[in-house]
Amino acid sequence: MAGTSSKVPIEIVSDDEMASIDVAFATAACSRVTPVAAPAIYSPASTPRIRRIGTSIESVPVRAKRGLFTCSDPDIEDIGSFVRASRKKKSREDDTLLHRFRSKRGLFVTDITKTEWCEKQMEFSLFYEEWKNHEAKPDFAFVYGGASRKSKAMKAGIDRHVQLEREVLEPVGVNVKSHEDFMALKLVNFINGVNQLMFEGLTRELPIISFDFAQGIWMVGKIDEMQMPKAKHDHNPVLVETKTRYRDTVPAESQKRNGRVQLMCYKYLWDNLVAHADRNFPSKQLFDYFELNPRRMLCKDLRTACVDSGFSALTLGDVVMCYKNMCKKLPYANDKLVLRYESQRDQSLLEEEKFAYDDGWIKNEIGICFEFWFGQREASYVNEEEQWKCGFCDFVSQCPANTAKMDDDSARLEKESTKLKKEIVALKAARYARRKRLEESVHARIEETMVRVLQEIEVIFETMKDELMETIGNYFKD
Ligand code: SF4
Predict the structure, then answer these.
(1) For residue 120, which atom of ligand 1 is closest to its CA?
(2) Residue 251 Cα to ligand 1 middle (Å)
(3) Tens of pLDDT along 132-142?
(4) Phi then psi for 14, rounded to 5 degrees?
């Protein structure tokens, strides 16, 4: 994979970077905006915006903003929870993670990237998500050790994505009334986004919903940016992903890899849509999967939005038909994908990585993720080289990988401590023995000296006695 070289130092950063990927998009898309009058989507804006995008791929002047229809309900990635909210929860004891957490809502592209990051962390966050929404707050309250971190860096990332979005999108409030309206809203925004891409050469925050025929599941996501190449012979739109950085550094390889997975997933979804639009567009699967009625009348706001977008639709089925017709005209996405890293400080470009789409590689990556989602194996942990990720994980104190390591560490410390205690006891014993030996030796020497001195005194006494006797003898003799 080719990428532009950079002298910017590489740094492993916190999970802010990862979290900001998701939070930035989710929040940017869900952020409430004051509804404004619905604009004519393709009429030039009163203040034309001609902007150069600071990338080395062809920058595109944006002549008009696209109307982004919004409602107070969650983003496309939450369409399922919106649909499920008013439906009775079914009890399915032995569900897979996919059934338990993503049934009727599709698998998000962020699910794939998070799974690629660490399957165990993904599993933890699914159960935490469920726990948060559970009134009784069962045992997971005990299990979860941290609070979701939303740092300054994440907030700055969110703000930047909102800013990028607002450069080309004009939010228009729509009062949706049904699940069918909600799905139609997303499809209309896709149609408008694609029109903007074709006419203006650029679109951002493009919701995409695509059927994975190989796995038989719906996948959903939101494409950061698409650009039409300037070269005349090239008609395939380029997918661009912008990531903001708190520090002026480029991320570690595993973080870049995660970004590549994300972009390749979008191309995979886009190309899937295009490939099946003509003959076997999965309309029935769409209605069945999300339990939607194609004949249900759309709300008035949405019917107006459709007219403003250049087509007439009364029901969700009509919108899906337009969606399908639109997809028929689409070219495949460009094989060249662009991942940009810009500084949060001044929005300067830190690195731009261009790489080629690898169909076999991404299918394999998605397949590995599906094994986890389909319950074909247990969640795996990060490998040894990537254990630094655990340092930024909210679930580190409860993760078996970490607790097992902690147990190992404790056992090792315990062993070392016992060994040290034994050594200390042995040292004390040796010191006592040495002192004892020393004392004994000193006593022995003192005793020996005293004996010697006494012997010498005795000799002196004997000598003095002999001399005295001799002197007394001589006295009486004289
Ligand atoms: S502590 Fe590490 S291995 Fe465990 S869930 Fe978190 S990132 Fe994954």
Answers:
(1) 5
(2) 19
(3) 776 554 443 33
(4) -70, 175
Helix (H) or strand (E) holding 400: helix 400-477
Give the C-alpha separation, 112 to 372, whole Å.
Answer: 10
Q: How many CA atoms lie within 13 A of 467 on its CB side?
A: 6
The answer to whether residue 32 scores a pLDDT higher than 80 is no
Residue 221 has pLDDT above 50, yes or no: yes
* Binding pocket residue ranges, ligand 1, CB within 6 Å: 118, 120-121, 124, 381-382, 389-390, 393, 395-396, 399, 401-402
Alpha carbons 259 and 257: distance in angstroms, whole number: 5
Which atom of ligand 1 is closest in space to residue 395's alpha carbon? Answer: 6
Residue 94 phi/psi, 5-degree rounding, is: -105, 45
- Maximum alpha-carbon separation in the chain: 167
Lowest pLDDT segment from 56-70, 97-111, 373-387, 422-436: 56-70
What is the distance in A from the centroid of ligand 1 to the CA of 160? 29
Question: What are the structure tokens assigned to 245, written together?
Answer: 């950085």
Ligand 1: which residue has its CA nearest to atom 4? Answer: 399
Nearest ligand 1 atom, CA 121: 5
pTM given for the model: 0.69
Give the pLDDT of residue 24: 35
- For 172-188, write each residue's pLDDT tens digit: 888 888 999 999 999 99
- Residue 109 CA to residue 254 CA, distance in Å, equals 17
pLDDT digits (tens, 9 = 90+) for 294-318: 999 999 999 999 999 999 999 999 9
What is the CA(344)–ligand 1 centre distance, in A?
27
Distance in angstroms (rounded) separating the CA atoms of residues 389 and 289: 35
Domain extents in the chain:
10-398, 401-478
Residue 400 CA, closest ligand 1 atom number: 4
Counting from 1 in the atom list of ligand 1, the atom nearest the Cα of 399 is 4
Nearest CA to ligand 1 atom 7: 390
DSSP 67-115: EEEE-SS--GGGHHHHHHHTSPPPP-TT--HHHHHHTTT-EEHHHHHHH
**Could you say which DSSP state residue 397 is in?**
T
- Looking at the domain 10-398, which fold is it? Lambda Exonuclease; Chain A (3.90.320)
Number of Cβ within 10 Å of residue 428's Cβ equals 10
What helix, strand, coil percent values describe the chain, rounded to 5? Answer: 55, 15, 35
Dist. CA 69 → ligand 1 center (Å): 38
